[in-house]
C-alpha cells in the first residue's frame, strides 16, 4: 500500500487542542471559492459506473471473522478494555419494546435552535446507539444473542414501516438530514451480524426490503444545488446507499454510493480542499474533516467489494490530497489562503466521533501526524458511522493506554447537520 503524503501536526498545535471560537455562523461563507466548478447532481448521475457492482453481499465494512479472531488473541490493553465493556450489551427486551418512529415530523435546525434540535433528535440518536451497541456487543462477546436481538429490533422497525415518512422542504431539511445517519447506522450494524444468523429468513428479508425502500426514497430527493445536493450530505447519503446496496445486492444503490467519491474527487482543488466544505467560513476545517468522516467509511465499504477505491484518481485528484490538506490547515490555518478566516472553530477536535474515519484510514496507510493525533481521541466511537471503530480497526500495537485530555468532551452530538 502506498503511503499517504500528508504533512503532520506540529507539536505546538497538538498540545494546544482544542481551541474554541466565540463567533461562529453557518452562513459565514467565503466569497473566494468558485462553486461553479463543482460537479452538479445531473453531471454526477451521468457518470458511467457500470464497472462497479456488488460482489459479496456478506462483506461488512470490515472482516468481522478475522477481527473477532484477532480480539481473542490480543493483549492490547485498550482493546481488552473495550471488549470487556462492549461484551455487556444492552437489554434486548428493552430495545424491542421501544416504539419505532413512525410519525411525520419536522426538526429545527441545529445552529439557530440547538436546544430544540437536541430534544427533537434524541430518539433518533437512541436508535443509532442501539444498533451500534448491539453489533459491538456481538463482536466483543461472540454471543449470537446480540446478533439475533439486533435482527429482532430492526424487524420491529421494519414491520412498523418506521422512517418511511419524513418532512422535506428546502427551508426545513433537518428531518431528511437526520434520516441519513439512521440509515447507515442500521445498515452498517446489520452488515456485521447478518452472516452469522441461522434462520430468521423472513425477518431478514423484511429488514433488507425496508432498508432498500428507505434508501431509494431518501436518495431520490435531489437537495439544493451547490449545497445538500453535492456536499457532505451527499457523502452521508452515499454511505447508506453503498452499504444497503451491498446488503440488498442493489447495484444502482451501490453505484449511487460510488458516484459520491467521484464527485468529491472531481470537486477537489489542486491543494486538496473540498470547496463545498471549506466555504463554511469559521467552520472550514471542521467541514473538511466532517466530509472525510463519511467519504473514508464509504471507500472502505467499496474496498471490501474488491475495488482499489483508495487509489482512485479523478481529474488528477485522490483522497490522500484531501487528507493531506486537512492536516495542513490544522497545523497552520494560514494555509486556508483566501478560502476562509484564520480564526477557526476547532471544538470538534475534542469529540472522538470525528476521529473514527482516521482509524479506518490508518488501517490502510501510514500517516505520522494522524497516528499522533488519534492517540488523544481513542477509543473512538460514532453512534452511526461505524460504532466502536477503534475496537474494529485499531492495530493492537498502535497504542497501549488511553490518553485522557482534561479538555476532552464526551459529547456524541453531531454539530454538522445544517448542510
UniProtKB/TrEMBL annotation:
Residues 1-23 form the signal peptide. It comes from the Bacteria. One of its GO terms (cellular component) is periplasmic space. GO terms for molecular function: lyase activity. Residues 114-335 form the Alginate lyase domain. Keywords: Lyase, Signal. The keyword DNA damage does not apply. Gene3D superfamilies: Chondroitin AC/alginate lyase. This is Poly(Beta-D-mannuronate) lyase. It comes from Vreelandella songnenensis.
Amino acid at each position: 500500500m502506498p503511503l499517504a503524503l500528508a504533512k503532520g501536526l506540529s507539536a505546538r498545535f497538538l498540545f494546544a487542542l482544542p481551541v474554541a471560537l466565540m463567533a461562529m455562523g453557518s452562513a459565514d461563507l467565503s466569497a473566494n471559492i468558485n462553486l461553479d466548478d463543482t460537479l452538479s447532481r445531473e453531471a454526477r448521475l451521468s457518470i458511467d459506473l457500470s464497472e462497479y457492482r456488488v460482489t459479496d453481499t456478506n462483506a461488512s465494512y470490515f472482516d468481522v471473522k478475522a477481527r473477532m479472531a484477532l480480539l481473542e488473541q490480543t493483549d492490547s490493553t485498550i482493546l481488552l478494555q473495550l471488549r470487556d465493556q462492549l461484551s455487556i450489551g444492552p437489554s434486548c427486551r428493552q430495545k424491542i419494546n421501544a416504539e419505532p418512529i413512525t410519525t411525520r415530523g419536522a426538526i429545527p435546525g441545529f445552529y439557530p435552535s440547538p436546544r430544540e434540535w437536541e430534544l427533537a433528535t434524541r430518539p433518533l440518536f437512541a436508535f443509532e446507539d442501539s444498533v451500534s451497541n448491539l453489533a459491538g456487543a456481538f463482536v466483543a462477546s461472540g454471543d449470537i444473542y446480540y446478533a439475533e436481538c439486533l435482527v429482532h429490533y430492526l424487524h420491529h422497525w421494519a414491520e412498523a414501516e418506521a422512517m418511511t415518512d419524513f418532512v422535506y422542504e428546502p427551508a426545513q431539511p433537518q428531518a431528511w438530514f437526520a434520516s441519513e445517519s439512521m440509515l447507515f447506522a442500521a445498515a452498517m450494524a446489520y452488515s456485521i451480524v447478518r452472516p452469522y444468523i441461522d434462520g430468521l429468513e423472513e425477518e431478514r428479508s423484511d429488514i433488507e426490503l425496508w432498508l432498500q425502500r428507505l434508501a431509494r426514497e431518501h436518495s431520490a430527493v435531489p437537495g439544493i444545488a451547490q449545497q445538500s445536493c453535492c456536499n457532505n450530505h451527499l457523502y452521508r447519503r452515499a454511505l447508506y446507499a453503498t452499504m444497503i446496496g451491498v446488503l440488498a445486492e442493489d447495484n444502482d444503490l451501490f453505484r449511487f454510493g460510488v458516484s459520491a467519491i467521484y464527485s468529491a474527487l472531481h470537486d477537489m482543488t489542486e491543494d486538496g480542499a473540498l470547496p463545498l466544505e471549506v466555504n463554511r467560513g469559521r467552520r472550514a476545517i471542521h467541514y473538511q474533516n466532517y466530509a472525510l468522516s463519511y467519504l473514508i467509511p464509504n471507500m472502505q465499504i467499496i474496498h471490501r467489494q474488491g475495488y482499489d477505491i483508495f487509489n482512485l484518481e479523478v481529474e488528477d485528484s485522490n483522497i490522500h490530497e484531501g487528507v493531506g490538506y486537512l492536516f495542513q490547515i490544522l497545523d497552520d490555518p494560514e494555509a486556508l489562503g483566501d478560502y476562509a478566516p484564520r480564526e477557526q472553530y476547532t471544538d470538534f477536535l475534542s469529540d472522538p466521533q470525528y476521529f473514527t474515519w482516521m482509524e479506518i484510514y490508518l488501517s490502510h496507510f501510514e500517516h505520522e501526524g494522524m497516528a499522533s493525533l488519534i492517540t488523544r481521541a481513542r477509543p473512538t466511537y460514532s453512534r452511526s458511522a461505524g460504532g466502536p471503530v477503534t475496537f474494529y480497526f485499531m492495530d493492537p500495537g498502535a497504542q497501549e493506554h488511553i490518553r485522557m485530555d482534561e479538555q476532552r468532551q464526551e459529547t456524541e452530538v453531531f454539530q454538522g447537520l445544517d448542510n
